[in-house]
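agent> Task received from the user: take the single chain below, predict its 3D structure, and emit structure tokens. No templates, no multimer pairing.
agent> Plan: (1) validate residues, (2) run structure prediction, (3) serialize to tokens, (4) report one or two observations.
agent> Step 1 OK, no nonstandard residues flagged.
tool_call: predict_structure(input=
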Amino acid sequence: MMTTADQRVSAEASAETRNAETRNGALDAFRAVMTLLVLFHHTAITYGGAGSWYYREIKPDGSATSTALLFFCAINQAYFMGVFFLLAGYFTPPSLERKGPLRFLGERLLRLGLPLLIYGFVIGPATIALARTSDGKPFMETFASLWQRGVFEPGPMWFVEALLIFALAAVIVVALAGRSDRREQPFPSNTALAIAALATGAAAFVIRLWWPTGSNILGLQFGYFASYIVLFVFGCMAAAPRWLEHVPEAAMARWRTIMWCALPVLPVFALLGDHVELMRGGPEGGWTIPAIAYAFWEPLVAWGLILTLLVVFQQHFVQLNRNWRMLTERAYAIYIIHPPVLVAIALQLRGVQAPALIKFVATGTLCCLACFYLAGLLRRIPGATRVI
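)
tool_result: status=success, residues=388
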């Protein structure tokens, strides 16, 4: 006869099995592709795009290539990190229900907190030291100096720092509000999605009056958090009815059209800024027309891109082959280790005389391949797969 403890373990094992069986390969592939896009995003900054990164070979200079990479980075910034928050939210309610609050938070601390600490105290400072070798500063001397000063460098791991906060918030909300059965909830109407986009844009504009994009506190750029919070909450709401796996094509088509209409707005505003007084001012934040336009442009582009990509991935990636499964399994490790790998490759190629666009493609591709294989090696370490 099974004891109560045996029954509980058996129930948990059955739940884990059901979760593995019902896991959607398309969403895993979507997240993996977004991870590779992060690598190319940071490569774009290396060669003239806009943003913050450890090492720049070329600063934004107004050239055609730099402008193209800048626009590439702007489009990415509108949605790609939001996708991670959306998917994290989507998997939070079933995980919390299956594991309970204490086990859920414990596993979050292991999978998010431990890599954050390792990156912040080891990988991040090592990446800074590696980047500074481009100025002739010895790696070990810089690394030792950073360690002695207790420098904590979150870098792109700000994302897992934010997820820890969101996970705790989810536990508190469920404890206070309880769970509701939303399995039959229909997909939001276009009106509801439009209201959410406008509210997100308004919130982003207000937040950026105090925290412009580019500024951060403890590694967190609050100027972008309006969309991150909205998408995480939407992901949580979408979990029970499985909205992300059943996006209506009519909704996708409508928002894809809105996205295509919105995309040219940003470059048009940038061009007008050189000739029209009213259009001058930075888009980072403040009472300027470009700041208002940028705040509302982001969610309009994000909603269209995310819904379109969700449909595309559901159509083509529900069943994953061996290579895709390996990529999805290694995606988190790739995300963690890519900064020093990218900086190292860029430094090795800086003496190569080639157009910036060619170096962007070559460096980004080499970084993806190197990180894929390094992640596979790291996951062979005993116990590593529990974390990465």
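agent> Step 4: summary for the user.
The first helix runs from residue 4 to 22.
agent> Done.
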